[in-house]
Amino acid sequence: MQPSRSRYSAIPPAERLPPWLQRPVGNASRLAAVQGVVKQQRLHTICEEGRCPNRAECYAGGTATFLLGGPVCTRSCAFCQVDKGQAPVPVDGAEAERVAEAVAVLGLRYVVLTAVARDDLADHGAGLFTATMAAIRRRDPAVAIEVLTPDFWGGHRDPAAGERAQRQRLATVLAAEPVCFNHNLETVERLQGEVRRGATYRRSLGLLAAARELAPRIPTKSGLMLGLGESRAEVIATLADLRAAGCQRLTLGQYLRPSLDHLPVARYWRPEEFDELGAIARQMGFAQVRSGPLVRSSYHAGDEG
Hints:
Elements: H1 5-9, H2 28-40, H3 46-49, H4 55-60, E1 63-68, E2 72-73, E3 83-84, H5 95-106, E4 110-115, H6 126-139, E5 144-148, H7 159-175, E6 180-182, H8 192-195, H9 201-214, E7 220-226, H10 232-244, E8 249-254, H11 271-284, E9 288-291
Parallel strand pairs: 1-4, 2-3, 4-5, 5-6, 6-7, 7-8, 8-9
Helix pairs in contact: 2-5, 5-6, 6-7, 7-9, 10-11
């Protein structure tokens, strides 16, 4: 089901953007340099596609998040700015080498690879991750690579067969030994159907748990957007579910409505509330926590602690 443009566009913003979410772009020269290389190599980054507010800061720190599989996603999640469609572009066989070239030209030391959902592909895009990791490492084995994957689910009416296929795709990616495996829950269980069309809460938790089982030496990570209508108690319950699945790293950030055609913001969580939730997450045992209004999945991804 595609998002209803009239349904969301009829809902005006509930309040003005608060001052703690208003910030300058920063480091314009580095931003322009990365954008130039990405354009030259005909690539996509989630930093640009999602208009991440931290992209200049991350670029300056030697980190970028590349979007694999083209700019069109086969899912229609109501929060995401990436283009949607059931007929995505054909897989570009040269994409991996162009990403590797961009990483080398920009001198990046920590790279995050994510991808649009490619439910049209037999392996749901697992091979895009492994090919790109291999291409980057051929040029520089010292580059650290984190992966932020979709759920690798689809194409199976039998849940047991779907789970086996999902696990096989996951194993393919983990065998390439990323430094971190990331898969976002995005929101609390009650809101999953509206926010993440095509994905489920329990399926995503199962993917994270399977990653810990298949590759216990690779840290797992997940993230939530706040401001979609969740309660504090629901957020804490979600953190407990992530810990039960063995998740070790966490990001918490404020959802920002990309356009009037996307889900509205229910409320803006205050910085001190993010601080409190971050402290709770650390008490639960998360080894790395990034919690703040402007935090995104890859924010300071290469930092320790």
